Amino acid sequence: MTHPASTRSFQRFSIGVLVFTLGVILWGAFVRATGSGAGCGDHWPVCNGQVVPREPTVQTLIEYTHRLTSGVVMLLAVALSVWAMRAHAKGHPVRKAANWALFFMMTEALVGAGIVLLQYVADNASVGRAVWMGVHLVNTFLLVGAQTMVVWFSKGRANLAFRGQGWVGVLVGVCVAGMMLLGVSGAVAALGDTLFPSETLAEGLAQHANDQAHLFVRRRIYHPIIAVLMGAALVYVGRWMSRLRPSPEVKQSAMLLTGLYVLQLGAGLVNVVLLAPVWLQLVHLLLADFVWMTVVRMCAAGLSKDAPRAELVSEPVPTHASAA
Predict the structure, then answer these.
(1) 102: buried, middle or exposed (CB in 10 Å: 19+, 13-18, 0-12)?
(2) Model-level pTM?
(3) Same domain, 202 and 101
């Protein structure tokens, strides 16, 4: 069952909220990459015990800006949820997607507050910080995914069906789980690059085999390996999703996903060669978000109740007689 599309103004607003959220996410990565997470001390939501910091340092300004923009995007998420509830009839999928987006926005704020209050910032190189970074990444993906679904459903898409999907359900599970694993490994690798930067590429490669090196450094090698394997998996999943659910949306998403992932792998390679400069870390993260949004779009199109279905039919094996 399809639902009426949202108004143009709501569609534009939902896209604007998503874009602004991506900007806040990138600024949060800038906070981590510049070591500015302790710019407001271990105070939250105030900054160094003050609502407006006096005589702030550069690190304080960076962290305080992130908190201000996070507050703005929270208000936007609330407005999006309220608007979705008031402008759409009961049962419209936009309502549920907007409410989930607000929920993950609130958990995002709680995770961020926990990182500050537990002092998992600046030069903290504990395993606990890596765990919280992983949780933060997973929640960020869920937030971006929910907001992507708001935009998707605002176009008048049908509800999703999770039962009776067969192999498509398996492929969706592989995509989601793989992207979460890839994202967490990337977050830990980025943390290692920030805390233990290398002077040269040779030095960075040598550190992976050094038993005395920090755990974050010795585990950095896993991220590019996972990235290559996940890239191959996504191309395979996109190919089979297009066969099983041959809708224009699935095919377009699968093609876009392949192109984006090739670009992402290239950015990752350059990031390693250039020893992870801050600007390239932000580009790499933005591309990762684009890949994730495309995965969400492809999975939504494949799970849509009105998606065309095709059976898996193996190609006939030619016999000697037919070959003759």
Answers:
(1) buried
(2) 0.91
(3) no
Same domain, 151 and 165: no
Same structural domain, 150 and 183: no
Q: What is the pLDDT of residues 175-193, one digit of tens each?
A: 999 999 999 999 999 988 8
Parts of the chain with a pLDDT under 70: 1, 205, 209, 311-324
pLDDT attached to residue 203? 74
* Displacement of CA 31 from its chain's centroid (Å): 17
Among 94, 125, 157, residue at a domain's last position: 157
Would 322 be classed as within a structural domain? Answer: no
**Domain of 235, in residue numbers:** 159-312
Closest-CA residue to 41 (of 29, 50, 28): 50
Q: What is the SS3 assignment for 50?
A: strand
Q: What is the pLDDT of residue 312?
A: 57
| Residue 223 half-sphere exposure toward CB, CA atoms < 13 A | 25
Q: Are 70 and 109 in contact (CB under 8 A)?
A: yes
Instruction: Determine the Cα–Cα distance for residues 324 and 314; give it in Å rounded to an integer.
Output: 22
Tally of domains in the chain: 2
CA–CA gap between residue 134 and residue 128 (Å, rounded): 10
- Measured CA to CA in angstroms, residue 299 lies from 129, 146, 148, 242 at distances of 31, 13, 12, 11
Whether 141 and 268 share a structural domain: no
pLDDT by residue (tens digit) across 225-242? 999 999 999 999 999 999
Q: Are residues 224 and 211 in the same domain?
A: yes
pLDDT at 318: 47
